[in-house]
Amino acid sequence: MTAILAGVDTGGTFTDLVLFQEGKLRVHKVFSTPHDPSQAILEGLQELGALPRLRTLVHGSTVATNAVLEGKGARTGLITTAGFRDVLEIGRQTRPSLYNLRVQKVPPLVPRARRVEVVERLDERGEVLIPLDEGSLEEALATLEREEVEAVAVVLLFSFANPAHERRVAEAARQRGWYVSASAEVLPEFREYERTSTLVLNAYVGPLIDRYLGQLEQALPAGTGLRIMQSNGGSISSAMARREAARTLLSGPAAGVVGARFVARASGIERLIALDIGGTSTDVSLVDGAITETTDGRIGGHPTKLPMIDIHTVGAGGGSLAWFDLGGALRVGPRSAGAVPGPAAYGRGGTEATVTDAHVVLGRLLPEAFLGGSRRLDIALARQAVGRIAERLGTSLEEAALGIVRIANANMEAAIRLISVERGLDPRHFTLVAFGGAGPLHACELAASLSIPRVLIPAAPGVLSALGMLVADVLKDYVRTLMLPIDQEQAQAAIEGALAALEEQGRADLLAEGFAAEQIQIERYLDLRYVGQSYELTIPYGGDCARAAQQFHLAHERRFGYSDPNEPVQVVNVRLKARGLVEPPVLERQPLQPEAVVQPLERRQVIFAGEAGPLAHEAAIYERSALVPGVQFVGPAIVTQYDTTTVVPPGWRARVDAVGNLLIELASDGPTDAQQLQQQRRQPAQAAQAQLAEEGSHVW
Hints:
Blueprint: E1 4-10, E2 14-21, E3 24-31, H1 37-47, E4 54-60, H2 63-70, E5 76-81, H3 87-90, E6 115-118, E7 121-122, E8 128-130, H4 134-146, E9 151-155, H5 164-174, E10 179-182, H6 183-186, H7 192-219, E11 225-229, E12 235-237, H8 238-243, H9 251-266, E13 271-277, E14 282-288, E15 290-291, E16 293-294, E17 297-299, E18 302-304, E19 308-309, E20 312-314, E21 320-324, E22 330-336, H10 355-362, H11 379-393, H12 397-419, E23 431-435, H13 439-450, E24 454-457, H14 464-471, E25 474-485, H15 491-512, E26 520-530, E27 537-540, H16 545-560, E28 569-580, E29 602-610, E30 613-623, E31 632-634, E32 637-641, E33 644-648, E34 652-656, E35 662-666, H17 674-679, H18 685-695
Parallel strand pairs: 1-4, 4-11, 5-6, 5-9, 9-10, 13-23, 23-24, 30-32
Antiparallel strand pairs: 1-2, 2-3, 7-8, 11-12, 13-14, 14-15, 14-20, 16-19, 17-18, 21-22, 24-35, 25-28, 26-27, 26-28, 29-30, 31-34, 32-33, 34-35
Helix pairs in contact: 2-7, 9-14, 10-11, 10-12, 11-12, 12-13
């Protein structure tokens, strides 16, 4: 039997597994084990019979993220240059809420008592102004010993220009047996506050990731390779993840974007908006041919400068609670019912109305089909929860449910606008790729609001992040700060010299991980800005400084609406990506059967918004596995499968392509399409809801 490649995404409720063997993909879900995530992984692999033949496991974990969000990281200390111990707390002058007079700052991960200083000083060129004082170093280490720290971040001023002092401090700290994270090793880049915050994050989660991955390595069969998904959309070795744990902080959402791009490309789509809707939040990201990255991310309010996919998150998901603010306006999220007690329809003690309960009331999910039939939803409890919202609004049950869904959609729509319209990109030129447990429920309505012409639902949307891990290349990021005018005579030589050194390091690292020279791909970038600006844009660098400057002006115009080619341009950093190309699974293409006709399992009443209020439509119910490539159908329709439910509203037409993706487009003739008119029958919403209650139809 051939070896198995596995991708595993550990979430708060479920652990998703995708196996690739002999050209076939298998998917599986098991309940997560938060006390030890490796237990769920091993359980799932055992149930699939994959452990004996497992060759490589690519893993995305929430261990680091949860540690930061829950404040359960290691007891961490910080060693920095004398006079700079409070940089972590002072931060920047930006305010998270400009007009809020009672803003509560996020407390630093390292309190002042565990922030210590050493006497030393470099200038901006890395030249020594004050040598490192060994006595102050011993005193600092003794203080941290008394504070019983487990991990230490070492961040000295201008160490990115000269790491000698920082290396000495890190060496002395490691001799004490601590987990040590030094900025010259992890992030040799200017901006003191962001660099300090990033290294503190790395030290804070490092011991947890180190122990967890060490246990997982021991539990896996001998000879199994373990790679870890990182926030930039690539994977790294387990050994590197244990040293630079902060690179894994957004591994799950990043893998989802990689998976969305992979399945979209299989359908010939290069421009897409990834929409990942879970139980608590919605993650959106834009892919315009290439995945968009940022080095200005935040985790739990703490800045990080490590490269990560540009993902915007809002607190809107299936478990988001409906509530009224002080002005009596209906709001949805960011508070969530979570997995326990969960939405009222789960029957686990939840009583407040959620987005899920609203879908239940509207009949958009089948109670007996939830999680492949392993759990049945309770429509009566959902109606009670939404009924309390309706009573306060003075509306019908259906109007209240539609209102909850509309508000949740508005929050999601705002997130999509932020990554597209507000950055000079027209969403009408993109395809919305929807995944996650609730993504296919909302996709078409969101697309209609934003005039997005097409929606793509992957074959296995609920486990797309795990699939993304299988297709992710091994990716290593390197950076060096230069700070020089791009038109300076020696600029070209300085840039080329710095990039050559980074490329040598990148190739050596990938060769050490077993990649052949022909499997290594190098990408070069420059961080450019107008002189005097406090932010940069990252521009691909092909060896021509003048060309890079022209690209910067164009990118600045698109991003901010203006540019000035007469202004001098400054090179802040050079960046290099060393990519170890992996052989991704190939989605099997099936011959199209355009003449095929699929018969619905049944027809049920489902409520959608009409011009005069809620309208009930007779919707066809399809099982996803019965939709062969080439088949077409029109909405209103509901498509059920193990990991999600897809809603196709009236006026939309769906087809299955050769790789099994479901493509849904607005029908040119709209809801008056003759075939659709033959399928749908409208009746008053109140009567339809009574029938829903009788039949037990409802949603997820």
